[in-house]
Design a protein that fits this description.
The structure holds two protein chains of two kinds. Chain A is built from two helices and one strand; from the N terminus they run βαα. By secondary structure, chain A is mainly alpha-helical. Chain B has a single domain, classed as Mitochondrial import inner membrane translocase subunit tim13 like domains (Helix Hairpins, Orthogonal Bundle), CATH 1.10.287. Helices cover 65% and strands 2% of the residues of chain B. Chain B starts with 13 loop residues before the first strand and ends with a helix. Classes of the chains: A mainly alpha, B mainly alpha. Chain B: Its main location: mitochondrion.
Chain lengths: 90, 95
C-alpha cells in the first residue's frame, strides 16, 4: 500500500476522506453479513438441493435470515457490555 | 512512523507529513477500532450460531438467547485464560 500524504489535506478533504472510508467499511460489513447469512442459512434450510427453491425453503431462508440478524444484535450487545466491564476492571 | 500507531498498525501506513496530523490519525484509529469490533462480532456470531441455534424459528427464544450470550462470554473467558496461561508458560521456559 502506498503511504498517504495527509499533511496538505484541507478540513473538507479530510471530512470527505473519512466519509468515503466509513462508507467502504459499512459496505464491507454488509457484504460480510450477507456472505455469512447465505452460507449459514443454506446449511440450515437446503438439506437436499432440488431443481428449484420451493416455498418452504424460501420461508426457512427468510426466517433464518431474520434470526441470524437477531443473533448478531445479541452478540453485539453482549460483547459491547463485556468490553465495558473489562475496561472498568483495568 | 510506527511509533505514531500502536504496534500492530503496519497494515495502515500513513505518512502524516512534517507537521503530523493528530486529528486525522485519531479519526482513523476510531474507525479502525469500530471495524475490529465489528469483525469480532461476525466471528462470534458465526461460532455461537452453530453452537446455539438448531432450527431457526419465528423468534429467538430466551433459551437460545441465553446460550448465545453465554457462548460469547465463555469464548472471551477462554481466550483470556489461554492468553494468560501462554504468557506464564513463556515466562517459565522462554522459547
Amino acid at each position: 500500500m502506498d503511504s498517504l500524504q495527509t499533511g496538505s489535506l484541507t478540513g473538507a478533504q479530510k471530512e470527505e476522506l473519512m466519509d468515503q472510508l466509513k462508507q467502504q467499511i459499512a459496505l464491507a460489513n454488509a457484504q460480510e453479513l450477507l456472505m455469512k447469512i447465505t452460507e449459514k442459512c443454506f446449511k440450515k434450510c437446503i438439506t437436499k438441493p432440488g431443481t428449484s427453491l420451493d416455498s418452504s425453503e424460501q420461508k426457512c431462508i427468510a426466517m433464518c435470515m431474520d434470526r441470524y440478524m437477531d443473533s448478531w444484535n445479541i452478540v453485539s450487545r453482549v460483547y459491547g457490555n463485556r468490553i465495558q466491564r473489562e475496561r472498568q476492571r483495568m | 512512523m510506527s511509533d505514531r500507531f500502536s504496534s500492530d498498525d503496519s497494515s495502515f501506513p500513513l505518512d502524516s507529513g512534517k507537521d503530523g496530523d493528530r486529528e486525522l490519525q485519531e479519526l482513523l484509529m476510531v474507525e479502525k477500532q469500530k471495524a475490529q469490533f465489528n469483525a469480532q462480532i461476525h466471528e462470534f456470531n458465526d461460532f455461537c450460531w452453530e453452537k446455539c441455534v438448531d432450527k431457526p424459528g419465528s423468534k429467538i427464544d430466551s433459551k437460545t438467547e441465553t446460550c448465545i450470550s453465554n457462548c460469547v462470554e465463555r469464548f472471551i473467558d477462554v481466550s483470556l485464560l489461554v492468553t494468560n496461561r501462554f504468557a506464564q508458560l513463556l515466562q517459565k521456559s522462554p522459547m
